């Protein structure tokens, strides 16, 4: 059944900047309904609802979660509020599409995962890049041995600096470059462990601090069980947006020019080591978030499987905690 014939009724926690691309646009594309929103500032929620066509403004996040007209909850709040409000939605029996990271640390992630499992409630951590044909094609080429044995993985995640008052600069709000961007680089590096003998170990790290306990940028060194090396470089103080992934094998390499946003650049470049031939594929500019919401709705309506589960979320948080220790900081 199409989304238009069977729309999700989505409740939004907060009037966040990311919501336009992450949930509003995809919901409109797929025919889902944005039925309720609440924010700490009701005026901001009303402005958001008017701009994006949300049907009702409610007084609190609890009101959104417990509204009988809300089928699923979208949680794009500050990092420190992901875990608590994901738990609140689980208690109400509402499936959750949560922005990453899943929680502020491993302990909290385990609490959320255990609660979701016990309640039989779907909670999806929003690693939207997984759902796009760009990543599907990458997996296909790796499975086919197109680049041979993987020897090196390089992930770059960079963006211009958020405003000074942004919660991503707050330790209390579980901020930092690794939390905001490193969750992606850790996740895709763990994913690539499938072709490298298993999960990578973080062998070292260094960071530039914005303030005590808050990383403005960081570099992580990794080693995979097969001996492959890896680097993750993240920065929230760059001059431009860069979200690239390079995978080097003994027969060639793959380069995803913008694995996080193929709507901006959908190229996948393959270089053959033996011939030097360069092949560029374009995998489509439909939003990763649209593919993600499509898959989430299929799970909610039909019980379809997802590419990641609750244990993946806990494992990713465990690696993020290790990443912070590697750069000499405390987990969030």
Produce a short descriptive summary.
The chain is built from 9 helices and 14 strands. It is α/β, with parallel strands linked by helices and 332 residues long. The protein has 2 domains: 9-127 and 290-308, NAD(P)-binding Rossmann-like Domain (Rossmann fold); 129-286 and 318-326, Dihydrodipicolinate Reductase, domain 2.
Would you mind describing this structure in some detail?
The chain has 2 domains: 9-127 and 290-308, Rossmann fold, CATH 3.40.50.720; 129-286 and 318-326, Dihydrodipicolinate Reductase, domain 2. It has 9 helices and 14 strands. It has helices at 19-30, 42-52, 61-66, 82-91, 106-119, 133-143, 177-192, 288-302, 310-326; strands at 9-13, 33-38, 56-57, 72-75, 96-98, 123-125, 150-158, 201-211, 214-223, 229-235, 242-249, 252-256, 267-272, 278-282. The chain has an 8-stranded mixed β-sheet. Helix 4 packs parallel to helix 5 (106-119). 46% of the residues are buried. The model has no long low-confidence stretch (mean pLDDT 97).
């Amino acid at each position: 059944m199409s989304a238009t014939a069977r729309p999700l009724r989505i409740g939004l926690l907060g009037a966040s900047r990311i919501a336009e691309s992450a949930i509003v646009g995809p919901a409109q594309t797929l025919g889902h309904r944005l039925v309720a929103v609440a924010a700490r500032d009701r005026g901001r929620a009303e402005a958001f609802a008017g701009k994006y066509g949300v049907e009702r403004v409610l007084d609190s996040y609890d009101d959104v979660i417990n509204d009988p007209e809300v089928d699923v909850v979208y949680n794009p709040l500050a990092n420190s509020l992901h875990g608590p409000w994901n738990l609140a939605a689980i208690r109400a029996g509402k499936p959750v599409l949560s922005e990453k990271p899943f929680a502020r640390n491993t302990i909290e992630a385990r609490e959320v995962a255990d609660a979701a499992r016990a309640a039989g409630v779907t909670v999806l951590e929003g690693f939207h890049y997984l759902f796009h044909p760009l990543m599907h094609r990458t997996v296909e080429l790796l499975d086919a041995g197109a680049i041979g044995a993987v020897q090196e993985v390089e992930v770059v995640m960079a963006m211009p600096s958020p405003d000074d008052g942004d919660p991503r600069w707050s330790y209390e709000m579980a901020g930092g470059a690794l939390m905001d961007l490193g969750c992606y680089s850790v996740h895709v590096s763990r994913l690539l462990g499938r072709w490298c003998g298993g999960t990578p170990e973080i062998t070292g790290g260094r960071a530039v601090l914005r303030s005590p306990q808050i990383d403005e940028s960081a570099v992580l060194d990794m080693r995979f069980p097969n001996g492959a090396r890896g680097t993750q470089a993240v920065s929230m103080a760059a001059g431009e947006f860069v979200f690239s992934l390079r995978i080097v094998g003994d027969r060639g390499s793959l380069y995803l020019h913008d694995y996080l946003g193929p709507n901006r650049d959908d190229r996948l470049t393959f270089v053959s080591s033996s011939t030097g031939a360069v092949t560029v594929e374009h995998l489509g500019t439909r939003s990763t978030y649209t593919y993600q919401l499509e898959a989430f709705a299929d799970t909610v309506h039909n019980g379809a499987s997802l590419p990641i589960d609750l244990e993946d979320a806990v494992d990713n948080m465990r690696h993020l905690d290790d990443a912070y220790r590697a750069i000499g900081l405390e987990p969030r």
